[in-house]
Amino acid sequence: MEEKSEFYTLVGYRKKEDNPMTEAMEDYLEMIYREHLNHKKITVKELAQQLNVKPSSVSKMIERMRIQELVTQEKYGTVFLTEKGFQFGKYLLWRHEILETFFKMVNQNDYKLELVEKIEHFIDPITLEHMKEWIKK
Q: Residue 78 pLDDT more than 80?
């Protein structure tokens, strides 16, 4: 009988996870959380501008996040975080900031936002904690 390999494709690893959040959903939620921290209200139009996407794409994503109880929205208006959305947004920004600091250190301040934005979706909390400890040294 043939032994099963421990390797998967990226899609295979994603299927094994129990995470209903997509990478895009995380990006939207992180941006909403950032605005919340600045005490700013954010609308679909503003979110579209900040993420360089169409307002219709934002509206669809807001609906998906509303179903997952991450946000609420006034009709054709401001988007608000739920407690669940706030806590997850807090984690997403924490993750982003650790990676940003790490790459600034490793690359001697040649910081690349694109690098962080790509990697942040695929790194686990334990590795982030280890990076955080390494940064402190």
A: yes
